[in-house]
Amino acid sequence: MKKISLAVLSLTTLLAACGQPQTSPQSPAASAPSVAVPRTHALDIDPAQVVTTKNGDMYVRNQLVVNLRGHSADALADQLGGRVLDQLPELDVALIELPQGKDARSVGVALMREGQVLYAAAQTVQRQIEPVRTAQDQLGAQAVNQVFDTLPQYALDSNHLHAKAAWDAGFTGKGVKVGVIDDPSDVSHPDLRPNWAGKAYDPATNTTYTTVQGWIDAIDGFDGKVDNKVDPGIEHGTAVASTIAAAKNGQGIVGVAPDSKFYTAAIFQPGFIGDYLVARSVIWTVNQGAQVINNSWGGTGYSPLLKQAFDYALERDITVVVSAGNSYREEWRNPAQLPGVIASAALDINNDKAGFSTYGRHVSVAAPGVDVMLASPLFINADGTRKTGGYTKDGGSGYQLISGTSFSGPYTSGVAAVILGAKPDLDPHQVRRLMEETADGSVGSNKAGFDRETGYGLIRMDKLADRLKGSNMPQKGGAGRVKVEIQTPGGYVPGILADVILEGDGADGAVYAVQTDSDGYANFVSIAPGTYTLRVATPDLTLTGGQSDERDTYVGKLTVTSGSVLSTVAPQRVVLVKGAVDLNPVDPYEPNDTMAEAKPISYGKMTELAYIFGKPRDVDFFSFTGKAGDNIQADVHARTAIGGSLDSFLVLRDASGKNLAYNDDANGQDSVITFKLPADGTYFLEVSSCNILCKSNGDDASKGQDDDSPFNKYVLELQLLK
User: Fold this and answer.
1) If you ran DSSP here, which 8-state letter would residue 19 be given?
2) What is the CA 351 to chain-centroid distance, rounded?
3) Which of 103, 157, 182, 427 does the annotation list as catalytic?
4) Three-class secondary structure of residue 524 per DSSP
5) Structure confidence by residue, pLDDT tens digits, 115-155
6) Which helix (H) or strand (E) holds 216?
7) Is 153-175+224-262+291-468 a domain of CATH 3.40.50.200?
8) Percent of all residues in the chain with a pLDDT value above 90, rounded to a whole number
9) What CA–CA distance (Å, rounded) separates 91 from 197?
10) HEC profile for 277-293?
11) Fold held by 39-128
């Protein structure tokens, strides 16, 4: 995955075309401007508001995504003291900017606990899966059967995807439209222009472009400058689109579904974007009539908005393909962990798992993803003028060798288009199972079938073609619902933010994971029929913070029936006895807001769970006795160590109140001070939030911002070092 710094976040400003009216996804497409302008828009993300959690997830502190349950977005924003930035009527979702000092995660949990909304969560930041650069910069020796127009493409040959066997049988994806949700695709490229479906979308301005020149002019401003040049880093979407739909036109390369058409929705400009604009792009793509949606991006963490957006597609029988990720390890990535999607791993030229390819039981199939030949943008000629046609191979202009699950994913999307071109009535699960049932399972660690590295194996289009000639199709997918409740002294309450996992029986059983909403429901759409092991744990401590013994767990069974849908399936009830979210916790050390009220701590001790909570600018004091020369270390275990929302700030003071040392971040967002005491006496440790104390280096909380959250949890530890 692309690693980004907060400096990169400023690149999320998008275009606002001069004189360009904004249009809804259902409105007639606007005519495009002839002159590009730098982009600014109301949905900009302030870098200072981006928070990184203990797991490396990133969210926007002051932006709240809310499913309104039909309520007024303006009324809710007024209640919170914020303002509505935008709404998605198809999902009944609003994006609300919160006032200074409010944390979207804790505000969202409070709204869910009170049942005001179906879900409320901070906007998460998703990342583009960055190509993996290899040392190879030459095409090298290629076999004759690897040339499909004029350039060699080993991925399509008879040792890999066997594309020609499907094409020769008449299966080319004709009549199928694929949505490419990525950075901007160069629709002027000679291999892409013939199969562009005629619409390109900028979700930041909610603008649809319908001419090649209009879209290219719009892209000119994506790097924040209008200079007739496009940021050379904007290559990802062009490569992805060409994997799927490059035309078989006697030049360059060929896409795996050469008669399919594609839409481009530009969510990365460049690098990453918040999940709100991803959801908007999914809705737009669905509403254009796409039958497949490709997603070569992802991150860690869970986004209820992305879950709802993909369910919007899946419930309309639109196949959703995602790249597994380039993390080199076994883990779940978002959205690859979501039910109903097809997660694709990457193989190298030898049909071995690519070293970078993320793996796990959620992987479905694998496709080539190392040094694959794909298109690259043709925006600028050597003399600086815009290219209007033709292509060259010198210096990589027009084509490139590129690696990553970003490209195994669209090979999989293209194969989905080939399937739907032949069998348009198949649902997303049937498309997935056709690929799995005809895959070459001999690749990967289990030569007899499924393994976590490559799923069911290498996609084989020749075997797919044989199946598509007949009528023997897999059974339809189904839906499942789980309702989690927590038994409290006052009765049953919904188990919000519970992790709910379905594990298919056997080593090759599919795995799906979601979180519960404010009613305690977890929904699974378009998944494999059968009996699953159901695992539930609540609450999600990465969000609320706390200790593992605060969670309760459940293990049972759940059965999904072929053809079942959410609107009619009966939910399975799960009752837990721990895990109700506490919005009014009691700090065992309060009052300790001044040095005079400081609570004692001694060497070798840790406090109980404490809170920066109860008033807008809470500070907590602890006192200890030390001797001259004592080498002490004080650790605040907070968001990085135990979860929750506290970005801690720690100050060491002497008996007069003098600031001897302070620390913000030592290991992520937690604070550590190591210090040699200058004299015998009493010393004080002051714990608070960086939002309150960072700007003043701990000397004047009045200069900071409010931070009052029940999830501002921490444990203070004091040690005497040798």
Assistant:
1) T
2) 28
3) 182
4) strand
5) 889 999 999 987 655 666 554 444 444 444 688 898 999 99
6) helix 212-219
7) yes
8) 62
9) 25
10) HHHHHHHHHHHCCCCEE
11) Alpha-Beta Plaits (3.30.70)
Largest Cα–Cα separation, the chain: 87
Distance CA 14, CA 216 (A): 14
Residue 316: predicted pLDDT: 97
| 29 burial via Cβ count (<10 Å: 0-12, 13-18, 19+) | middle
Please give the helix or strand (H or E) that residue 401 lies within, else none: strand 399-402
Closest by alpha carbon to 511, among 520, 498, 524? 524
Taking the CA atoms of 460, 463, 467 and 468 in sequence, report the sign of the dihedral they define: positive
CATH of 595-721, one of 3.20.20.60, 3.60.15.10, 2.40.50.100, 2.60.120.380: 2.60.120.380
- CB neighbour list of residue 285: distance below 8 Å, 6 or more residues apart: 179, 181, 201, 263, 265, 293, 313
Based on the residue annotation, tell me whether 406 is a catalytic residue of this protein: yes
> Which residues touch 59 (CB under 8 Å, ≥6 apart)?
50, 51, 53, 104, 105, 121, 122, 123, 124, 125, 301
Q: Name 350's Cβ contacts closer than 8 Å, sequence gap at least 6.
A: none
Q: What is the DSSP letter of 32?
A: P
Cβ count near 216 (within 10 Å):
24
Q: How far is CA 317 from CA 235, 263, 313, 314, 691, in A?
A: 30, 18, 7, 5, 45
Q: For 416, which DSSP code?
A: H
User: How much is the pTM?
Assistant: 0.84
Could you give the residue ranges of the DSSP H alpha helices within 521-566?
A: 541-544
Looking at 160, 189, 236, 429, which residue is catalytic? Answer: 236
With b for 16 or more beta-carbon neighbours within 10 A and e for fewer, the 645-676 pattern comes to bbbbbbbbbbeeeeeeebbbbbeebbbbbebe
Beta bridge partners of 512: 502
Least confident residue range of 89-103, 371-385, 418-432, 629-643: 371-385
Q: Retrieve residue 265's tokens.
A: 């929705």
162, burial (CB in 10 Å: exposed 0-12, middle 13-18, buried 19+):
buried
Residue pair 203/265 in contact (Cβ under 8 Å)? The answer is yes
Distances (CA, A) of 41 to 59, 205, 391, 631: 19, 7, 35, 51
Q: Which two tokens stand for residue 540?
A: 């999600």
What is the fold, at CATH topology level, of the domain defined by 480-576? Immunoglobulin-like (2.60.40)
Tokens of 169: 């049988």
**Angstrom distance (rounded) from CA 653 to CA 633:** 14
Confidence of residue 563 (pLDDT cuts 50, 70, 90): very high
Domains of the chain, residue spans: 39-128, 153-175+224-262+291-468, 480-576, 595-721
User: Which residue is associated with the tokens 């927590």?
Assistant: 486
Span 261-278, average pLDDT: 83
Query: Per the structure block, which two tokens stand in for 98?
Result: 């919160």
Closest by CA to 378, choosing from 242, 207, 198, 261, is 242
* Residue with the two structure tokens 């080939």: 418
Kindly tell me if the per-residue pLDDT of 507 is higher than 90. no
State the CB neighbour count (10 A cutoff) for residue 1: 23
Which residue among 242, 406, 413, 564 is the active-site one? Answer: 406
- Residue 596's CB is within 10 A of a number of other CB atoms, namely 9
pLDDT of res. 328: 86
Look up 189 and say whether it is catalytic: no
| Cα 289 off chain centre by | 24
Structural contact between residues 294 and 181, judged by C-beta atoms closer than 8 angstroms: yes
Please report the DSSP string for 354-386 in residue order: PTT--BSTTEEEEEE-SSEEEE----B-TTSSB
Residue 182 is among the residues annotated as catalytic for this protein: yes
For residue 390, pLDDT over 50 is answered with: no
Element (H, E) at 314: helix 304-314
Contact 694, 617 (CB under 8 A): no
